[in-house]
Write a structure and sequence with these properties.
The protein is built from three helices and eight strands, in the order βαβββαβαβββ. The protein is of the alpha+beta class. It folds into two domains: 73 residues, 2,3-Dihydroxybiphenyl 1,2-Dioxygenase, domain 1; 66 residues, 2,3-Dihydroxybiphenyl 1,2-Dioxygenase, domain 1.
């Protein structure tokens, strides 16, 4: 199962500089900014966004809270070939101790045919997703 997309957390004050660097250094390969659903979240890639940059504000004087916040902002997604693989992942991840963070189902707010499931891992609470991008008509 190939990697589908992932997120990287950067200081909010450095977010635009990171975008400029990535476009300047990878633009010749077709790498570009695709979307900013909110000002501190940027989807980047070539044909589609596969790298998501999140700008995070540090909590003053509370390193533990800041680290916990950054860990929970991490996200990694894997590509499934069909909705059944997405459902099987979700069931297996819950059986392995994960916590549901989004049951298997269509996510038309992302794009037509997007069918995914989200589980927080039981160790760090990182959001792990499996997604099918061509599951049009699945419920």
């Amino acid at each position: 199962m190939p990697l589908d997309h992932f997120s990287v957390i950067v200081p909010a004050a450095k977010l635009d500089g990171m975008v400029e660097f990535l476009i300047s250094s990878l633009g010749h390969l077709g790498f570009k900014e695709h979307m900013r659903p909110i000002p501190t979240v940027i989807g980047m890639g070539d044909a589609m966004p596969f790298l998501w940059l999140y700008g995070a504000e540090a909590a003053e004087g509370d390193v533990a809270t800041t680290q916990e916040k950054l860990i929970k902002m991490q996200h990694i997604a894997f590509t499934a070939e069909n909705a059944e693989q997405v459902r099987a992942y979700h069931a297996a991840a819950l059986k392995a101790g994960g916590t549901c963070n989004g049951a298997p189902g269509p996510r038309p707010q992302y794009h037509p045919g997007y069918y995914g499931a989200f589980v927080l891992d039981p160790v760090c609470g990182i959001n792990v997703e499996v997604v099918c991008h061509s599951c049009v008509g699945e419920a």
